[in-house]
Structures are given as structure tokens and as C-alpha cells.
Amino acid sequence: MFEPTIEQSTIRNEVKPAVKLKSKLFKTKSTDLIPPFYLWSGLILLAIFTLAPFVYLFTSSISKTEELLSGHLIPHSPTLENYYKLFTGNGAGEFIAAMKNSVIVSLGTTIFTLFLAIFASYAFSKVKFPFRNSALFTVLAMQLLPSISIIAPLYVMMRNGISITIPFTSFVVFQTPPLLDTVWSLIISYTTFSLPFAIWIMTGYFQTIPKALEEAAIIDGCSRMGTLFRIIVPLAMPGIAATAIFTLLLAWDEFMFASAFTQSFDSKTLPIAIREFIGKHSINWGLMTAGGFIASLPPVLVSVFLYKYIVGGLAGGGVKE
Amino acid sequence: MGRSIGKIVNPRFMGRKQRKDLLFAVVLLLPTFYILFKTFLFPIYQSLVWSMYKYHMLDGSDVVFVGFGNFIALFKNHDFWTATYFTGYFTVISTVAELVLGLFSALLLNQMFRGRVFFRMIIIIPWAMLTLVNGLLWKWIFQPGNGSFTIILKKIHVLSASENPLWLADAHNIINSVVVADVWKMTPFMTLLLLAGLQAIPSSLYEAAMMDGAGFWKKLWYVTIPQLFPILMIAVVLRTIAAFRVYDILTVFTGDPTTSISYLTFNKAFRYFYLGEASAMAWVSTAIILVFIVLYIRLLKKNSHEV
């Protein structure tokens, strides 16, 4: 009666290409469309278009200000002066505080999101209950709604402090102090935005784990919670890793909430700190590119080294904006 | 808690196992649902209520019910239409550019060649960069005089040495530059999505097309695009939804909030603190995006039925 209207394969089909990727890597294919000359021309253009701006960011950051002003694309006498200024000069304390806040906010968001989403995804993928698919698609819709839809009410909520009440009564269980200009306001709002996509990706991965494995564990005397942590979580590690990476990148990158909710370097994150390099009168491009390069390095390194998880996650419906 | 929900679905029709399942699901989902309700669903509802009120957060004036007054004022507001125009322009141009470039990049990266993993990895770099740094980087590239765009054009003699155009002089040029920045950052996302789709196309189809003597464009048009179509649609809808809310990059390029609806809404709320009007504007965005979300979910469901 309450059978899901959509086959479980909805999500599994999304994941399949990622699994296929590996086996196809080492085979020649008859699907090759493009003759070698065009292939390599295209690849070279692609590489230039992709890498040149990023390299330019780096070369600008190791150039002297005079060279930047006189229009040298490649620095004649590379220097780490800008980085030195960034970490010891005026405002270095603020930049370091922003780095610290960014790390706290991203890690905090990731931990909360994963903790909540693992349980929720387990329910969505392995337990039958009424309205399961409707609830899952509601979650998907929430993943795509823009942050501008809820930013003003959340701002007021953070300003007044969050009160946790028992639903339908006025009994307050717990009341936080005002949260504006604290890292908590960011952790809470980012968790709200990451939870939907985390649930969506992980439910997809959890569904690919055969039921027989769980049943075997239950026969061996494992409780349902036990099967979650002994069977499902270890097997779904690639999915959990993909979710963690997307959440980290999202929290590291987010700008709109951060610019609304933060006022001082108690809570300002890197995007806000870098935005402030655009001074009142002029931009110090050397310093700006150095700061931008430092701030971009962690997500770029994470993505390049954990590339395969990201590809799997994207195929599984992950959307990072 | 279990009992109160059990009532809705009439427990007489449920077995013991089903009731136990329901209770278990409720326990697992309760924290998530509570948080999403509190910090997502309720705020969306609240902003709908606020959109009906004159509500200024700081000046201490009374909160007055105005019905659809905020919406009417909004639709008469010239800035709002300018912002809508620019948002639409940005969304369409950047999505189309990303689709075309992403498709060709995906076709390139789907072939067999040495170093394929390397090329697949480097394309992820722009995508991983901070959106804000991406904006600043392109603003730097488009600087008049000593920005690299001008310098390169001078080196290849497209511009003479004395010329020095202002690339970011008016709103249109600014939006075009922001499109370039967005295309650079988000094409990899499109590429990776489409690449996953390309790998699922059975090679027998290409073999058959080859037997018929089809060349590159024919194979692309008669095999690749029809086979890829469901994923193409999904990718386009996803990018449209994301492009529509453009905000971060614009704040770097310009102080002019009429360049996007998000920018205008944000300024209304957090610069002037007109929460009522800002909520009305936010709801216009929400409504437009909801249409695309419904479309997206229907596409997903349709794909799963066909497969």
C-alpha cells in the first residue's frame, strides 16, 4: 500500500556511470569521435583556458607591485613579498583570524551535517515508512532553493538567539544567546543548506548496498543501529567522503550568509576578508592575489587529490554551488 | 510521537513490523526534520508572511499589514525590472555557453588518450576555487591598462599601443565579464556531469553509425545528443537554478545592485533593512526557482521510469 512510487533504481542509476568509469578507463573504445589532430588541439585549448587564469593568479601574487603596474605578465624577479606582507604586515592578524574562522566553520558544518545525514539517509534508504518518497523529494527541492529565500528570517532568528521549544507549546527547552557575529550562526545556517544535498547523495549510496548483507548481520545478532555502523557506513565510505568534500567546499566558499551575519573578525571568514581587500580607494592587486591564492589552495588541493570521490558524488546527484 | 503519527495512517492497516519500522524511521529522522523545519521551512513561510507587511527592522516604525502592496510596489519599480533583465540575461548566456563548452570538453575527455586522468583532474581546478576569488581574478584580468586582457590584446596587435578601453565601464560590459568568470568556473561542473552521461552510451550505437558512414557531426547529432538528452536537460536545469541566484561575483565587480535580483534583495534587506519589501522580492525569486525545481524533479522521475 505504501510502496514507493518510484523504484529505488532512481538514484542507483545516477550512481552507475561513476562505477563504470573505472572499467572503461583502460579500454580502447569505438566511441572515439574526434580525430587525433582535433583532439589534441582541443585539449591544448582546454588546458590553456583552464590553467592560464589560475597561473596568472599565482604569478601576480609573486610579482612586485611596480611590475604589476607596468604590465608584466610574467614576473622578472619573483618575490614572496606579498605573502610576507599578508602574514606579518598590517591586517595580518585579521587575515589569520579569518583563516581560523573558515576552518572552524567548514569543519563544524561538515561534522554536524554528516552526523545528522547518516541517520536520515539510513531511514530513507533502508526503512519503509509512509510518504518516504514525498519526503525525499521535498528534501531534494530544498537543496535547490536559493539562500536568498530564507536569509532575512534567519538573520532575525540569529539576532534574537535560537530558542528550542516543544512543538505546539510555548515551553522553551533551551535558549541560546544572540548568535550574530559568531561562528555558530554560520555553522547552523550552512548545516541547514548542506543537509538536504548530503541526505540526497548518501541515500543514493546507501541504496546500492545489498539487503542480503544487512540481513546476514541481523541474523548474526546485530541490532539495526549496529548494521548501520558495522555494515552500511563502512561500505558507503566513498559516498560519505564525497558528501564531506562537497560540504567542506560549500562552507569554505559561502559568501552571502557570511556577509550578512558577520561584523567583526570574531566570525568573518576568508571570502569576507578577501572581499575587504577591495579598499575604499584602490586595490592592492599583489596582496589581493596572494590572499586569493592562499584561500583557494585548500579547496583546489582537496578537489584534485580526492578527484574520484567528487566525480562519483557529482554522478550521484551532488550539487555544489 | 510514534502513536500520533501512526494515527494519520490508521494503525489498523499496519502490521507490527510496519509500526516498528515507522517508529524507527521517526527516531532516525526527528533531529533532521526538526532542524530543517526550524531553519528552512519555517523561515520560508515566515518570509511569505513578512512580504505582506511593511516591516522595517531598525527605524522602530510599526509593522503594518499591506496585503500585496509590497509586490505591487515591486512590479512598478524600475530597478526591479532592470535587475530581472540582467539576471535573465546572465542566466541564459552563461548556461548556454557552459552547455556548449561543457559538451565539447566532455567529448574530448571521453576519448582514449595518454594523460587523460591528468586532463580530467586539471579541469576541476576552476570549479574548486573560491567564487569570490574567481570574481576578483577576472576583475584583475579585465583591469584597464595593466590587466592581462588588455596586455595580451596589445601583444597580438588587436589593440594599438595607445588604446586603453575600459572593459568594465557600463552594466552590460560588467555582466558580460561576469559571464566569462562564471563560464570559466562552472564549465567543469557541466563537463563532469556530461562525461558521466557519455560513458553510459553503448558503443554499439557508434559502431552502427560508423557502418552507415556517419562523420563527427552526424554521430554527434544522431547518436550522442539524443542519448545524452536526459542528462543534458538535467544539467541545464541545474545550472539555470544556480545561475539565477548570482550574487558573490557581482559584488566584486560592481556596487550597482540592479545587476541581479539576489543583489537587489540582499541590499534591500541588509543595507536598508526593509524586510517586508525584501521578503516580497525574495519570494519572487523563490517562486521562479520553484518552477524549475518542479521541472527538475519531473525530469528525474521520467528518467528513472524510462531506464
From TrEMBL, chain A:
Residues 99-306 form the ABC transmembrane type-1 domain. Signal peptide: none annotated. Pfam families: BPD_transp_1. It is found in: Cell membrane. It is a multi-pass membrane protein. Belongs to the binding-protein-dependent transport system permease family. MalFG subfamily. The chain crosses the membrane at residues 37-58, 103-124, 136-155, 162-180, 186-206, 227-252, 285-307. Its main location: membrane. This is Carbohydrate ABC transporter permease.
TrEMBL record, chain B:
Residues 84-301 form the ABC transmembrane type-1 domain. Its main location: membrane. The keyword Acyltransferase does not apply. CDD domains: TM_PBP2. It comes from Fictibacillus terranigra. Belongs to the binding-protein-dependent transport system permease family. Keywords: Cell membrane, Membrane, Transmembrane, Transmembrane helix, Transport. This is Sugar ABC transporter permease. The keyword Membrane applies. PANTHER family: ABC TRANSPORTER PERMEASE PROTEIN, INNER MEMBRANE ABC TRANSPORTER PERMEASE PROTEIN YCJO. SUPFAM superfamilies: MetI-like (SSF161098).
